[in-house]
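Render this sequence as a predicted structure.
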Amino acid sequence: MSEIEKKMAARSERATSDNLQKARKGIFKSSLLAVAIGCLCCITPLVLVLLGLASISTAVSVDNLLSGPLVWVFRGTALICLGIALGIYFRRRGVCSLDEARRQRNRIINTVLLTLLFAIGGYIAFEYILLSYLGGAVGLPWVAEHWAFVWAGILLGAGLLVLFSTFVIRRRGHHVHSEVGDSTEQSATESSSK
């Protein structure tokens, strides 16, 4: 392999690594957006108390209103925003037609699965664990749900497992392709020198 080809392969590997970093950031941003919107029903009373804009009893009333019949409005809005964010994410990466979506089907499925795992796991962890402790600390009658610890751990752990496995598969595929290229080029140069 010539020196120029080695430099080009190194640049290609750095570009692939940079693209993976950008893709992961996009996935996490989409998931965080969905978590923030979905948790607005419980963040609002907490923020009102912390800023001194409402008393505990007013915050409990606001919480009962937002967490009762309106909780599904926040969750639905979060899912819609997550879908829009994923649409924008794939559009920016060149998936603009159904043919392109079919060609990149595995990547799309992995990305959507990963985003949903992080969004739902993050929502459970933030809504039912973290906000419960914060609300309890300022005097709101919130208690952390025991099931939330288990499900947040399962979903976030599965998300990390999917993220790790896709990273390892991509890295192995990249090295296999470069090794195949090296061995093909090596055998070509050996046969031409004979």
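Summary. The chain has a mean pLDDT of 81. The two ends are 17 Å apart (CA to CA).
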